[in-house]
Description:
The protein is an alpha+beta fold. It has helices at 25-42, 46-50, 56-66, 85-95, 100-112, 114-119, 122-134, 247-283, 295-326, 332-340, 343-368, 379-386, 396-413, 418-428, 445-469, 477-507, 512-541, 545-557, 565-579; strands spanning 139-142, 158-161, 167-178, 185-192, 196-203, 209-214, 225-236, 240-241, 285-286, 289-290.
Amino acid sequence: xxxxxxxxxxxxxxxQIFTPEDFTDEHRxxxxxxxxxxxxEIQPRIEELDAQKEGLMxxxxxKAGELGLxxxxxxxxxxxxxMGKIASAxxxxxxxxxxxxxxxxxxxxxxxxxxxxxxxxxxxxKKYLPGLATGxxxxxxxxxxxxxxxxxxxxxxxxxxxxxxxxYILNGEKIFITNAGFADVFVTYAKVDGxxxxxxxxDRDTPGFSVGAEEKKLGIxxxxxxxxxxxxxxxPVENVxxxxxxxxxxxxxxxxxxxxxxxxxxxxxxKGALAVAANYAMQRQQFGxxxxxxxxxxxxxxxxxxxxxxxxxxxxRLVGEIEEALEGKxxxxxxxxxxxxxxxxxxxxxxxxxxxxxxxxxxxxQIHGGxxxxxxxxxxxxxxxxxxxxxxxGTNEVNRxxxxxxxxxxxxxxxxxxxQAAQALADELTSLRAKMPTGDEAPLEIEFDMLDxxxxxxxxxxxTAAQKYMQKIAKEQEIIEILANMAIEIYAMESAxxxxxxxxxxxxxxxxxxxxxxLAYVYDSFPKLEMWGKQALAYMFEGGEMLRTNLSVLxxxxxxxxxxxxxxxxxxxxxxxxxxxxxV
Length: 584
């Protein structure tokens, strides 16, 4: 198991990572069960769900509970199925085809229930988890406030202990709370005595607590989104979740889980949209031919598939690492530390998969032409529903701030040998050269060399920025964004290559498509790193000899010999169009 963020500093054995090819028979059975539920139970009622038919979403959640789709993360002793993080991710991916239902399901099973599962005491778990596992109770997560969105710790909701010591009196407001219209249990946050950020479990019938009107939204219309109002709300002291003043430990780690789960859901939605695009392209005729025969359409299909492959590879790699890190841990502090270790990768998963999804639904709509802009075809809803994912669980901009910020903070504290690696790189930069193909290389050898140089480009730009700006680097958001983009692409390229290499090692006869998808992604992404590096260096040095010297080094690191990317994409598109869906 590779520790969090170390992907930037070291290589990893392909056989050490988890990939979808490692799914067990039980995993595949779970996937089939959820896909059948989404197709046969949810999709026929999508329009009713989007119209928020009274009681329908709640009843569908209870049906999911009957199938065991709400208790994957809940221990058996509390009525759950305790399937593990991989099985939970598989459920999340496959339920994503249920449109707005997937949002309500995710809010309930993820950010709504997990705070109690991971950080609740024995009494809280016994009281709430059995109902949450079946859907008899529905959960919501209430963090966002009118003046505290991405900056969650600036929350203004306050909690004061009552004179008799039996209650905390909460006053404040939460906004944009998913499931609020029908939820029974709300995990929320308030500052005890105005400064101790603390988590609370709030029951719907709490005196002084009320739910506002439904928000009218661009997409995910079937999900309930309301504000919560606390007016001298009396929350029993036994409903404090975790420790007073330690609410940030719960909030941020639940957000980390929410981020990678959102990434998994994005992969499922992207696959669904690609299938719609492929089938429409085969059916729609122009100039006497199916539009799937045209090169530009093939190019779109292939690029969609390659981006999905990279997202899928990185999210399941991450889920596998988190499952291994959490094994045997029951203490809240240990669990929190294990999850926090992968905070950077969680942000990467969220950003990459949500932006892949936006790309895929946009191209799916484009392939449909004018029909895609009408409600007659499902892609119109895909397009609207997808947009929220770049805002959910911390905006993508905030997650981009988190990635380099966390890296640099760990480096400064000595938790990560980042500064040492940057210094060591500085000593060898002048002698670094790209490996050019000779025809004698092992499969993917050249691409792994490109990956190694991509990591060196990141260290070069990051080390230069850290040295120049030191403690003030957080204010240089344009540089932070460049470093985040580089880290995201490095993790995606590496995950795609490792998965392809593992397939070559273990099942070479069936590895061809994975290799093609990895190559298509790497040769599309690698040139971006040099471009971003040039932007950063030009800003940091503003001309002169230092700029020319650094640009020369960057050019050597970014050197590569192009492959026949068009030909590779044509092969990928042919396979996707023949299958009518995403294939690996």
